[in-house]
Write the structure tokens for this entry.
Amino acid sequence: MEIIDRRKAIPLDENEGIYVRDIKTGKVRAVVGQTYIMNQDEELWSKSLPEHVEKLLSADVDPLAERNTRAHNKEAKPRLKHKVVTYRVPHNAAAQIYDYKAKRARVAFGPDLVMLAPDE
């Protein structure tokens, strides 16, 4: 008998999540707000985003307080690609999120925390 892989439980808060891909079916889903341990047919899935979207998400600036500054020269830490992408919609703002698989859009009005599904 040989141990191939050791799995650990991943604790997630109610506003945290991970993307999990089923190896057999290929389906990707987001697991949010619970302690999760992957089974033998699952793996962490990395969500890739365009570079300009990565910059916007990692800027970590307040859009209302810093709306007159054009250049954000802050060094941002790289995003963990298997973590669910979250965006905090500021007060008195809206964000439109499009689901490419279901071919429908949803709008989030601030203040709100948007968590992207794998196909959004």
Remarks:
- The helical segments are 51-58.
- The mean pLDDT is 88.
- The radius of gyration is 17 Å.
- The chain has one helix and seven strands.
